[in-house]
Here is the input.
Amino acid sequence: MSPIRTFSALLAAAAAFALGGLGCDSSNRSTTNQRPASSAPALPPPGSKAIFYKFGAADSKIGFTGAKVTAKHEGSFKSFEGTIGLVNNDPQMSAVQVAIDLDSVSIEPDKLATHLKSADFFDVAKFPKATFSSTTIRPGSPGSTFNVTGKLDLHGVSKPLTFPALIRLTPEGIDVDGEIKLNRKDYGIVYPGMADDLISDDVTIRLKIHAARTKNDSPPQGATPAAARSAN
Here is the structure.
């Protein structure tokens, strides 16, 4: 197991979900595997077995920054869970899925958190969760090494998404740090803010993930996308 691997799939997860958390306070928003990329998905060799890792809010963080004309706001999500199915220690044959409880958004002041949960932003009454499932993972540029592509479901919209990240495989699990920018309007989150304090379309998402190996190698409940990419 190499000391450093880039595994963009994890970044996806989190990145995607902080998208709607724009800072609107309106109560009145190293080098790793150098295998050439191919157009077809990399598939596990026959007989390969995935090793499953889980992560959640207890030891990981999905944070975000949203901005408007007069200020920036930083927030996070307090409830989320994800699974990585790692095959042969090779990200290109592996997969990740993440689900975030959007009602768990945490940001100051409290009235902003309440606004983010409303129909102006996440609309958690109608869309309580956001999910991401990877489809392919490919080598990227130096410093990001892998790009992950998958489907993000947010605010009733499903769209493909690709982004880079850095991962470290250690005896204790998988550690990931990443950052990505998303456009909230791509997912139908279009609330403009106040006329004299407009909200930026872009949201920056930061991930600090620690995924620990499960006690057995069976896919955890709900890990269908990761399991589907692994060999039986």
In short: The chain has three helices and 13 strands.
